[in-house]
Amino acid sequence: MKKYLLIILSLSFNIILANDVIVEQANNNPLPVFSIETVFNVIESGKYDLNNIMLVAENGMLTNDVYIKEKSIDIYRYLLRSDENKKNKILLEKALAAAKIGAFYDIIFGSIRGSALHLFEVLVKIGVGLDDAVAAAEFTIFKRNGFHYRNRALDLFVALFKKGKAFDQAFNLVEKGIFIENSFVIRRTLELFDELIKYNGKNLMANLDSFNRVLKIFDNAFNYSDSYTISRYSEILLDIAKMKNKAGKLPQELINKSLDKCKIILSTYDLNDKSKFEKIQKELIKYA
Description:
elongated
């Protein structure tokens, strides 16, 4: 394999010199190995040629080096910090293409997916690539490897919720996730459910079909016995109980199940702080 020059520049180098290096990398190396710190430093300075930086990132996405791909994705995200760059259609198209490659990249470990999801979040806020972002979030939310992937996927769902997107997909994922007896899936499921209720709870409660689906999620959730799961689902249940909805009140049986679970946890576990469960009990009793 052809060897490429690794150019290492100190962050204290003159910005003009650093930019000259980027120009050389963009024009001369089809598979660039460049100083990432230098590129980011130049972007931060605001003194750069956008086309040259984009070419470096574009070439970086063509390499087989996952690290360079990941950092190339980060370059697009850094470029999109600029309000002016957010209006550049060519940049947005290239950034979206890079995000799609990274989000579905066939690798178990490594943080390329995390970088891609972060870029998707930026693009969604701009209003670009919403459907692709939904697919990326769905693909990653329950992935076994990569805690930060799942966190990024959750953040991406929230960004989509704020745009009025991905409610149905998130609802379907919660319904599936509640049956998967795996701690990380359970935790991610309840976190996604919590955000879904925050951003779309009133709409879900206004429709009898979706209301019944929500009740079924809770009914299955309370089959678990760990204190974290019970406390979080009880808190979400309490949030729903406080909503004025057209579909009807929460069933007494469901509220009782939550109260019973809280009571069992308080009597079984040696909790450092029992006040959370005691508060949940006190509040839920109002709706019993």
